[in-house]
Amino acid sequence: MRFDLISVFPEFFDVLKLSLVGKAREHGLLDIHAHNLRDWTTDPHRTVDDTPAGGGAGMVMRPDIWGKAIDTALRAGSGRQVLAIPTPSGTPLTQRACEDLSHADQVIVACGRYEGIDARVAQHYAGQAEVFEFSLGDYVLNGGEIAAVALVEAVGRLIPGVVGNAQSLVEESFSEAGLLEYPVYTRPEEWRGLTIPSVLTSGDHGAARRWRRDRALDRTVERRPEMIAALDAATLDKKDRRYLASLGYLVPKSAPHPERAEVRPASASDVPALVALAARTFPDACPPAMSPASIAAFINEHLSERAFAEYLADPHWVTTVLISGGRPAGYTLALLPEGNGVAGAEDGAPDGVVERDGPLVELSKVYVDRAYRGTGATAWLMDATLARLDEATSDYPRPVVWLGTNAGNRRAQHAYRKAGFEKVTTREFLVGEERNSDVVMARPLRVA
Ligand code: SAM
Questions:
Q1: What pLDDT, on a 0 to 100 scale, did the predictor assign at position 447?
Q2: 2-164 with 190-250: one CATH topology?
Q3: What is d(CA 48, CA 39) in angstroms, rounded to the nearest whole number?
Q4: Spatial distance between the Cα atoms of 228 and 248, rounded to a whole number of angstroms
Q5: Strand, coil or helix: what is 405?
Q6: By the 8 A CB rule, do 41 and 65 touch?
Q7: Are the C-beta atoms of residues 344 and 335 closer than 8 Å to each other?
Q8: Is 393 helix (H, G, I), strand (E, B) or coil?
Q9: 59 lines ligand 1 (CB under 6 A)
Q10: Low-confidence ranges of the chain (pLDDT < 50)
């Protein structure tokens, strides 16, 4: 691969004689040429700049001098030729861009100084080569040479043979996984009171791999959240998804990327979307024999816009919503009794069945949209709901929360058991006209 680096300070490029890039040049893998732009001037002062058209501070580099230099460089190469122009107003230089450039035959880098290069240079060459105006980052350097060196090194190391161990390219930050790299350690095992995380020295390679993956996710969430939002969901296994949920991202079924999610008290502006969600999810938990008319009647009475407005207005109702990708994806409705009384007595609250020294709270609804099941969303919503109920009953030593769930709904019972609920009794429950048998489950709100 050929690089032509054009600058008024070609000495800058002496660093490219060092290290891996230097070795790659010796081995003929990289063919790097540094040129002095002033070699294309004709005046005694070897002038490359002039005052800016339209006025203002500084000087602008002349297109005629650049044109001669770039023409010469283009003639020296062939195949896929790229003219790279460093500029703070360019597109950010990314690993993807470097991977793409590593397939070019020639990259010419036109390094600006002063106020930059006359804009017609990029415009003119767009007709005959690929023009890539790139930025090294959101800061201003004095010249494009550092950016050129960065580009040569980042692109050059992707050329097969330049980096000895090709595997080290696969696991890096911004590589296929789309994550920042995990933290790395080496001997000594203890240094200034700091030790290497024991999982890395345990010999358990599976655990070490998982630990690294989780740290890569941590770092990326903390430092580069936009990379999480761009992650390819197909590269995430179940453990990744669970871990991402603990970091505030959910990956619903068939979604291309993780979504930013949060659990919070529901507010009036959530109501229309909550009503739609409730209507969508309620039938999932009904016994198969229940008629559509009965389901509709229940929704109309308990899950309508008016009903939700009432829940929100009444301090006894605790309404919690899971928002993912900007939309409600799950919700819970819980009823607090007066003082240390019983909520849902008429619904079959297990009063007298469970031991308590505080209120008996009813967890009336726990619903999560289908696409979010198995993503960690339910556990997250449940934990947040229980924390809210715990806080609301903090005056009492041993409040208890109970719920009733369809006896045939094994999935729900399993999820509730995982959340610490145990079956305490059964109840008969009327939905519309039909009688249903429910399992009644309960758990202490506060687990010592
Ligand atoms: N007036 C220009 C602006 O505000 O965008 C800045 C010119 S800068 C002082 C001079 C040269 O440094 C640029 O032409 C470019 O070659 C190089 N340069 C400065 N910052 C850069 C960055 N963040 N990325 C790439 N090149 C940069």
A1: 82
A2: no
A3: 10
A4: 11
A5: strand
A6: yes
A7: yes
A8: coil
A9: no
A10: none
Beta bridge partners, 135, equal: 92
* In contact, 253 and 377? CB cutoff 8 Å: no
3-state secondary structure of 114: coil
Of the candidate CATH numbers 1.10.472.10, 3.30.540.10, 3.30.70.1450, 3.40.630.30, the domain formed by 262-444 belongs to 3.40.630.30
pLDDT at position 431, please?
62
Distance between CA atoms of residues 207 and 212, nearest Å: 9
Annotate 286-331 with DSSP letters as a single string.
S-TTS-HHHHHHHHHHHSSHHHHHHHHH-TTEEEEEEEETTEEEEE
3-state secondary structure of 173: coil
User: Minimal CA–CA distance to 229: which of 261, 269, 197?
Assistant: 261
258 lines ligand 1 (CB under 6 A): no
Asked if 116 and 61 touch (Cβ cutoff 8 Å), the reply is yes
Domain boundaries, the chain: 2-164, 190-250, 262-444
pLDDT at site 432:
59
Is pTM beyond 0.85 here? yes
Per the listing, tokens 């709904």 go with: 409
pLDDT tens-digit map of 162-212: 998 888 777 777 877 899 999 999 999 999 999 999 999 999 999 999 999
Q: Are 84 and 144 in contact (CB under 8 A)?
A: no
Question: Which residues neighbour 126 within 8 Å (Cβ) at sequence distance 6 or greater?
Answer: none
- Is 32:175 a contact under the CB 8 Å cutoff? no
pLDDT of residue 314: 97
Fold of 2-164: Alpha/beta knot (3.40.1280)
Ligand 1: distance of its center to the CA of 141 in Å? 5
At 301 the pLDDT is 94
pLDDT for the residue 165: 83
Residue 8 CA, ligand 1 centroid: distance in Å: 14
Atom of ligand 1 nearest to the CA of 116: 14
- What pLDDT, on a 0 to 100 scale, did the predictor assign at position 285? 82
Residue 176, pLDDT score: 77
Q: In this structure, which topology does domain 190-250 adopt according to CATH?
A: Trp Operon Repressor; Chain A (1.10.1270)
